[in-house]
Write a structure and sequence with these properties.
single chain, 333 residues, alpha+beta, Butyryl-CoA Dehydrogenase, subunit A, domain 2, Butyryl-CoA Dehydrogenase, subunit A, domain 3, 2 domains, 7 strands, 15% strand, oxidoreductase, Acyl-CoA_dehydrogenase, AcylCoA_DH/oxidase_NM_dom_sf
């Protein structure tokens, strides 16, 4: 077992607090942030495993994940390549290639979306969510499909499937159209937050030195203010999730708002740390340099301005007012 995989399994020995919306969401996101602050890739893999547990529970399979396993969630659906599912007796088999598979050669199991091709011309294809044992014959990580320097260790390349047995858990819509999908997305933002805090650590430490320059302290103060606001946002959102866990529309809006803010916060901290400290830490501190590279790639799971545009669209679609997201509901604004 690689050192990275060993570290992930060590973290898995301590389960997360209750699933989102069950009263301990803030503690859950705090732990995700703490793990990712220690090692960004470990946090990324741990979060996906925890999400698989939550997805299984939401879809009626609470015993899906067993001790000693490491699950990925491989649900990217670009136009190409395509992974297809075919009925095989009483079950299903998967064939084709799945892109963007974090932990491609590390995970023992995965939740995977695949397309069921129509039986007749003019019929629509259907997407389903499957559970797959990755030790099955026919599962092959595709080499040279993950070239990122940041998050290199996450092993997020393509995986080839050749008539691999799989268990259908529900439709793609069952996976997407649930509050837990969006709560999980905020959990990813908690991981970004933890990684951003770790990137800021050298800047905050240097700013505390007696002879630190006013310019360095200004950058540190701005970074600290942003991190303070970021954790306040995660904490208040966690309380809102626990208070109204099944409100799908609000969960979607919350996810877009929180992920947008933490994405921009992380980018700002990367920028301020570099501007304040210069090239020294990036050139001579291997851990810091890797954290910066990892976080730069990790936050691109956020869809940037696309998500920002989606936020008011979600509110309009579901008849929600801005005060339900950004205010306290009083009409005195």
């Amino acid at each position: 077992m690689t050192d990275l995989l060993h570290e992930v399994h060590e973290q898995l020995h301590t389960p997360l607090p209750e699933l989102p919306g069950r009263g301990e969401t803030q503690a859950r996101w705090r732990r995700l942030a703490g793990i990712t602050a220690q090692n960004t890739v470990v946090g990324r893999l741990y979060e996906a495993h925890a999400d698989a547990v939550a997805i299984g529970t939401d879809l009626g399979y609470p015993e899906l994940v067993s001790a000693g396993e490491l699950w990925g969630v491989w649900a990217a659906e670009p136009p190409m390549p395509v992974l297809t599912a075919t009925r095989s007796g009483a079950g299903w088999t998967l064939s084709g290639t799945k892109p963007w598979c974090s932990g491609a050669s590390l995970c023992s199991h995965a939740l995977v979306t695949a397309t069921v091709l129509p039986d007749s011309p003019g019929a629509a294809a259907q997407k389903l969510l499957f559970a797959v044992n990755l030790s099955s014959p026919g599962v092959t990580p595709v080499p040279e499909t993950w070239h990122a320097v940041g998050m290199a260790a996450s092993d997020s390349g393509w995986v080839s499937f050749e008539q691999v047995p799989a268990t259908a858990l529900g439709t793609h819509a069952d996976y997407l159209e649930r509050s837990g999908f969006w709560h999980g997305g905020i959990g990813v933002a908690a991981c970004w937050y933890g990684a951003a805090r770790a990137v800021a650590a050298p800047l905050l430490s240097r700013a505390a030195a007696p002879k630190a320059s006013s310019l360095l302290r200004a950058h540190a103060g701005a970074a600290a203010a942003g991190l303070t606001a970021g954790w306040a946002l995660l904490s208040s959102t966690a309380r809102a999730v626990d208070a109204d866990p099944h409100n799908l529309a609000l969960a979607k809006a919350q996810a877009f708002a929180v992920r947008t803010y933490i994405d921009r916060l992380a980018a700002e901290i990367i920028d301020r740390s570099g501007r304040a400290l210069g090239p020294g830490p990036l050139a001579s501190d291997a851990i810091h340099a890797q954290r910066v590279a990892d976080l730069s790639v990790y936050i691109r799971q956020c869809h940037a301005e696309t998500d920002e545009a989606a936020l008011p669209a979600v509110l309009a679609e579901h008849g929600l007012g801005w005060d339900q997201l950004i205010g306290d509901g009083h009409d005195t604004w």
